Amino acid sequence: MDILLEPALSTQSPKADPPGYMAGRPLREWNDAYAKVECYFYALEVGNKLMLSQLVIEVLKRAMFRAPQNPEVSATELAVEEMDRLVTSWFGEVLEENPTGAGDMLSTRGRLALLLADMPGKWQDQFLRPPPWPEEFVTSMREAYLRAGPDFQLSKMVPRPFDLGPITTLTSLSKLPFFKIVMLCCWLAFGLALVAIFFLGH
Question: pLDDT tier at 114 (50, 70, 90 boundaries)?
């Protein structure tokens, strides 16, 4: 189902767009961008419908402002970049960390701190809101941020060899030298011949 963006964002285009376009891009591109940003906020457990829509619209406004200067970048890419910039900048303010110096770890640890501080259950209305914030919320976020690091590391799965059990014994025959395999076949044939002679003689 398409999402109607024009009522909320029509003032963002610097010039008149043809029908079906906003900020020089087809509406379907902005609908795709809307869905991508909405999924991201859903993953952070922003469940309030009104708040969710407001956050997505704010991100798309920023993306539309950049769209005319970046015609080679898709609407979805612009929206994701602006979403990441907005969230990381907010983490920097709440947690008193420099977003430039912290790199990707600020975003990673910040998202974890949101869950540890129970943002979805207690502080959903404070997410991406400008200061001032409730002191209890700031304290919870900063304590959760400390628990999430600085020793917090993303785990890496190291591949381990499969244990195939008894079948490995059978496949190990393929590693015998060619001469041994030939000799084994000869002995098997000789044994079968003796059995055949025994039954024919009786």
Answer: very high
